[in-house]
Structure prediction request, 126 residues.
Amino acid sequence: QVQLVESGGGLVQAGGSLRLSCAASGRTFSSYDMGWFRQAPGKEREFVAGVSRSGGNTYYADYVKGRFTFSRDNAKNTVYLQMNSLKPEDTAVYYCAATFSLSVVIRTTAKEYNYWGQGTQVTVSS
Prediction:
């Protein structure tokens, strides 16, 4: 069982930066692949980025590639999403998710993740 708590959301102007954090409970955090998803009003939840158990492998959606960086610190049971060059279309509730995986392939769909945080709002003004 993993419990996830996100933090770091807020209001920022276009072109600005935010860093989201997700703290996980449990002694087996390093056994889980982690992901960030987001959901804007009236839209489906979409994949943003994923990181492997070790942190050595990351994968990004095309619409954030080059602007967002996903990292993890297994010693602190925490993952981070550094978001730079933010755009108004990045406005959404951002969710941290975890999945137990023995695969080297990073999961990119919400149904493949078993544990979710409560979400944190990110609003980018133009």
In short: The chain has a mean pLDDT of 95. The longest strand covers residues 92-100. The radius of gyration is 13 Å. Residues 21 and 80 are 5 Å apart (CA to CA).
